[in-house]
Specification:
Length: about 675
């Protein structure tokens, strides 16, 4: 039988990142516990252990005490850092005796103790001393649960009259590593994910924004959610976490370097601007804080249920959002909308700005394309002299490999809108090419320069599976990028068109092209990391050859406004990137895994997850797209390896290529054997 009548906890601070508790208890011997009845036991207040030979005067040749057991109950996740035994020991002592020695069997492992003669001389006149013995934390430790102790192998020892055990244990503080988002409106109400190390589901935590604390919503391991309280002031608030343990006062740690920024944005005015056939909503704001992405939410004043979210970007204190292509300003003319914005891509400003749709410049540059075509025809027809001059000027510039004169480019038809701008088929020096027009109206001059510089760099790249760039040019209104024409458009369009049969072998070959293009980019010095790899950026030519496009662009400073990216690409973005950690070529391998999934499922990943939840779901919780029922086991294994959370666990493209070769070989054999050379066999629906 075991008795643990009382214990008290004393808090002990070790170093700043942890705290310790001392559990200090004494206990009674088994025999005494057996002897007393319930009521009597309660009257004990010494809680001391007394041996069978309490007076310490009996024959030393017998066992001093029976086995003692006691229960030690540590809080979850605690670990013992030190343990001490305090014992009143008595002995027969004279100068001729050997030193007093004894051993304790702690959970059946012996630990030796020696009491030197000096100690006896200094401390013990009556031959009874009270002495503390420190047990090595690396030696025999007491355990969480039932412990046993037994005295054994002693010399010169008469008795042990009292034992006190002091165990110091410790629980580590949580350390916040990151919060998402790191800013929110001054009114509060932002759901902030607290990502930390050493945060344990067994404990209850409080989040404190400066001094304002509220409970953290049930924390999963390493992720908790807190609602930001109303900000007392605009600007930075320090976030800390407190937690409560069993009966222990609140402990807390201030993570001084973790800051949540409150903003107080006032929406002032709004207007619609138009550029190269696309419409933008520009919202004038006061109190803007620097940030990247932004969203505009426009709600029909008449029908508050009808609201649309536009993606955009913060620029010069304003928010610029892009209307969908289907936006028809003539139809919308005069309609009243309520506008609000979000700059953390999650919660919206409480203020709503009333706005009447009005096309300020209906005919100014409505059909820029028409203007361009007319101008070009004009140029061609205007006369030999002018034409000759323009040709010469252009030639001079293209010779140094730097420049494509927009006047030399004859736009034909729009092919689609890719990241950053619309893509047209065009004629350039008798060659059919594709041209991307990127509006520069809202771009800084520096960005334009940087952008063209990067295109020049890309022009030097040559690989059959990498889209060839011919060059770029600029005009007052846009940057023009000339590149190879890929007639079938993007792999995404082809995959989404489910009526179009694409057999498995073909899909594997397309994926192999993409992988070899990526392998080439990664093998350059320095490697080009794509960062925006997705089926939309894999272009397909007449012969089903796939080429990687849009690489490197994501690095430029104009990212955001025109790209489908602000949120659209989150599904392809590697978790380390979502978490804002440094990225490597392995980030592209992750994106490639999602592309593999697209080729398998012929669908868009995560149809049911709102895009902004992806940061948490993919980045923190680690979910991945649902794998549809299929019989390509090895393929799925490769795909899963490619989307491993730890970049170093993902294969690189050289290995992916080897695997794909194998799959293609198998598939070809299978098709030969099955003698169903149907080109349009579908694998699954
Ligand atoms: C100790 O045991 C108790 C009860 O079994 C358990 O709740 C607790 O988590 C354990 N603590 C440690 C540190 O293992
Ligand atoms: C143990 O030693 C302490 C200090 O010397 C003394 O106060 C206490 O009464 C002793 N306990 C027993 C049971 O002898
Ligand atoms: C915050 O998150 C909790 C739990 O996920 C959810 O119930 C709540 O509605 C969210 N609040 C806001 C303002 O998004
Ligand atoms: C936010 O700004 C508005 C207008 O500038 C001001 O009236 C309001 O008091 C501010 N709110 C807070 C909490 O500072
Ligand atoms: C808002 O008003 C200011 C001053 O009248 C003007 O300069 C600015 O262009 C306007 N912004 C928008 C987005 O309409
Ligand atoms: C919302 O408004 C848009 C354009 O004003 C309209 O096309 C759409 O049908 C409306 N949707 C609903 C649900 O009312």
């Amino acid at each position: 039988m075991t008795k643990l009548p009382h214990f008290k906890l004393i808090i002990f601070f070790y170093f700043s990142l942890s705290y310790s508790f001392t559990q200090n208890f004494k206990f009674m011997s088994t025999k005494q516990a057996d002897q007393c009845d319930g009521i009597e036991c309660k009257t004990y207040d010494k809680f001391s252990f007394k041996s069978n030979y309490l007076d310490c005067s009996n024959d030393p040749g017998t066992t001093l005490f029976d086995e003692l057991t006691f229960d030690l109950i540590l809080p979850p996740r605690a670990f013992i850092t030190s343990q001490e035994l305090l014992m009143n020991v008595s002995t027969y002592y004279d100068v001729y005796s050997p030193p007093t020695k004894f051993a304790l069997l702690i959970n059946n492992n012996p630990t030796q103790f020696t009491i030197s003669a000096e100690t006896w001389n200094d401390q013990c006149e009556s031959c009874v001393i009270k002495k503390t013995f420190i047990l090595s934390p690396f030696g025999n430790t007491f355990i969480n649960g039932t412990n046993s102790m037994k005295l054994t192998g002693y010399s010169n020892l008469v008795c042990v009259s009292e034992i006190e055990i002091t165990i110091v244990y410790r629980i580590l503080y949580p350390i916040i590593t990151r919060i998402i988002p790191s800013l929110g409106p001054i009114e509060g109400g932002t759901n902030v994910s607290i990502i930390s190390k050493l945060m344990y589901p067994e404990y209850r935590y409080l989040c404190c924004f400066d001094e304002e604390c509220s409970p953290m919503l049930p924390a999963k391991e390493e992720v908790g959610t807190c609602l930001s309280p109303e900000g007392l002031k605009k600007g930075d608030s320090f976030i800390s976490v407190r937690f409560r343990d069993f009966g222990i006062d609140e402990q807390y740690l201030v993570n001084k370097d973790i800051v949540f920024t409150y903003y107080n944005i006032t929406l002032v005015n709004a207007s619609i601007i138009e550029n190269v056939g696309r419409y933008y909503l520009m919202v004038g704001c006061e109190g803007m804080v620097t940030t990247e992405g932004a969203l505009c939410k426009i709600t029909d004043k008449e029908n508050s249920l009808n609201s649309t979210i536009l993606k955009g970007k913060v620029q010069g204190g304003n928010v610029i959002c892009i209307f969908p292509e289907t936006f028809n300003i003539e139809e919308e003319e005069g309609k009243i909308y309520l506008i609000t914005i979000s700059i953390n891509l999650i919660d919206y400003c409480k203020q709503q700005l009333e706005f009447v749709i009005h096309d300020d410049s209906p005919h100014e540059s409505r059909s820029y394309l028409t203007v361009v075509v007319v101008v070009i025809f004009g140029v061609l027809l205007v006369g030999v002299v002018i034409g000759f001059l323009i040709f010469n000027k252009a030639k001079k510039k293209t010779e140094d490999g730097e420049y494509i004169n927009p006047d030399e480019v004859v736009l034909e038809e729009i092919m689609g809108s890719g990241s950053y701008g619309d893509v047209y088929s065009a004629l350039w020096r008798g060659q059919e090419i594709a041209v991307k027009l990127i509006p520069t109206k809202n771009m800084l001059q520096d960005s334009v320069l940087q952008f063209t510089k990067e295109v020049q760099l890309m022009k030097k790249l040559r690989h059959p599976c990498v889209l060839q760039f011919f060059g770029s040019g600029t005009d007052a209104n846009f940057i023009l990028i000339a590149m190879e024409l890929m007639r079938r458009g993007s792999a995404h369009t082809l995959l989404m068109n489910k009526t179009l049969p694409i057999n498995w072998e073909r899909r594997l070959k397309m994926l192999k092209d993409a992988a070899s293009g990526m392998f080439y980019l990664h093998s350059l010095t320095p490697p080009i990391i794509h960062l925006d790899l997705k089926s939309h950026n894999l272009l397909v030519d007449d012969n089903w050859k796939v080429k990687v496009s849009d690489f490197g662009l994501s690095m430029t400073s104009i990212e955001g406004l025109h790209s489908n990216s602000v949120c659209g690409t989150l599904a392809w973005t590697a978790p380390e990137m979502l978490k804002g950690k440094p990225v490597s070529t392995k980030a592209d391998v992750y994106s490639y895994a999602i592309v593999m999934w697209e080729f398998l499922a012929r669908a868009d990943p995560y149809p049911d997850i709102p895009r902004f939840h992806l940061i948490e779901k993919v980045g923190e919780i680690g979910i991945r797209p649902d794998i549809p029922q299929n019989n390509h086991i090895a393929y799925c294994e490769l795909m899963q390896r490619c989307w491993e959370t730890r970049p170093e666990d993902r294969p690189d493209f050289s290995e992916i290529l080897v695997c794909l070769d194998e799959f293609i070989k198998e598939e070809t054999n299978k098709n030969l054997i099955s003698e169903t050379p149907s080109l349009y066999e579908e694998d699954e629906e």
